[in-house]
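pinned: reference chain
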Amino acid sequence: MSGAVIIGVGPGIGRAVARRFAREGLSLALLARREETLRAAADAVADSGVRVLTQAADSTDETALRAALDKAADALGPPDVVVYNAALIRADAPGELSLRDHFDAWAVNVGGALTAAAHVAPGMARRGGGTFLITGGMPEPKPEYVSLSLGKAGVRTLVTLLGQTYGAAGVHVASVTVHGPVAPGTDFDPDDIAAHYWRLHTQPRGGWDHETHHSGAPDRAQDLRPASATASPAAAASVGHSPGGRAPGPPPA
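pinned: its structure tokens
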């Protein structure tokens, strides 16, 4: 197993996924915008004994993100699994943001995921296997979160398109849709949510799910939709802007 790349490792889901994958023995490449975020994430898995590489990169900077992914592959080998866990979360009503602001949000919420997938998925397909996962949220659009709702609709389509493009070659593309604000000790505990990522990564090909929902108790860490119900996979928000923000899931209603 070469290991995992996690894009967005702030406190919350990203860091919890890093801990879970490290617990399973995967080497880790952690990507985030800020050095302090990277240091905290590396510290969180320091006792695991796995090899950890940190790379500073902004998910909206295509050149920097591709370069960071190349450095990770050079150091650790081609990744078995890549997790895109970056999003720009802010409240905005219809017409409140400029078009430029919407473009900026889209670049984080969708563009970075597309850049990462386009960079790593072809290699996975050539090798005959791999996993590309996107953190989701906002299972329903909300008018008080327009840019986020639009971005997560884009992610939903992206997951479907990537599955159509690379699935036949053995690349499992899926999302984890989180229905509430992420916080330790709650029904949306990041460690419970992280279990979904490992389960998706280790699913046998004949039983792939393309979307998993975490909607809180009593169904913590349960997949709510069978693969047959995921012809149009959803993914919707979770981490504060760029590789490295906190992952609260959809804003509370």
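why pinned: The mean pLDDT is 87. The beta strands are 4-7, 28-32, 52-56, 81-84, 130-136, 171-178, 211-214.
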